[in-house]
Give the backbone structure.
Amino acid sequence: MLAHEKFPERSKTANGLLRYTDREVVAVLDRDHAGERVAAHLRDTQDAPIVADFAAARAAADGPIDELVIGIAPIGGGFDESWRPDVRAAIEAGCDVAAGLHYFLNDDEEFAALAAEHGTELRDVRRPHDDLTVASGTADEVRADVVATVGTDCSVGKMTTTMELAAAADRAGLDARVIPTGQTGILIEGWGNPVDRVVSDFTAGSVEEMIRDVGDDHDLLLVEGQGSIVHPAYSAVTCGLLHGAMPDGLVLCHAAGRERIHGYEDTPLPPIPEYVDLYESLAAPVHETTVVGGALNTRAVDDDERAREAVEAFGADLGAPATDPLRFGADDLLDAVLEGVQ
């Protein structure tokens, strides 16, 4: 897994795969932390050595490496040329390469030629399929209850909350299915539509398509959220997802201590109660919904007592039950979600 100079603070895709994939991660490539281990930086994930380059990953692996995943999701989804030697080395070693970038590996002449020469696959998981179309406004006709995670900003825990709710549903014996809408969710689940890459007119339709495909086969659909309705760059994706999913309930995700949009520090976050009004009001013309729970990312909070206090304050602002699903579990949040959508 490639995460050069971004692990773990800005390697959202790598972190998600380490926590939720059922495939073995044999190494993380990060020059800044080479010689360390994942467990020193992330808890409750797969552990693996951190190495400086792909050659070191091959040396650390107990057997062949099947795939190199670019585990970074930079703003704009570009490809950093400093990654090229490792991608090249992986292809030459017979490895497939997967990326969730807006830069497509298959459109890179060098990588495409090398992949053809060595018989490897380049997987651009952010490339949408060709048959997407506009929404028909029928996602609410499926049998399953539909719950979407929404956020105050990017990188606040929407994908994590989705996956933790899915795990809680599995423990409870509930037939739940994740609807993956971003690169990390798609890599974990092995299917999905990358809603931030489709033509704007088709964003809602891409979500609706997935819900209609599986919604009659499950009790609960958990839609992976993207962006934020107040984000200067990504609000359009959030709106399209919200209208296409037509959710019965929303789980609002936030990062403790965050006061401004990440990467857009001149844009302050509105108060939490305003987010509740914004999301519910925006959804209402298409399909009425309510915020039925909250997930607070307390990674920046030192101890559990202070984290619980932060969660309680967040829940009070929401007017709904809240937790940190990684720190305190998601079982009670699932109960609140199920009660809220009945």
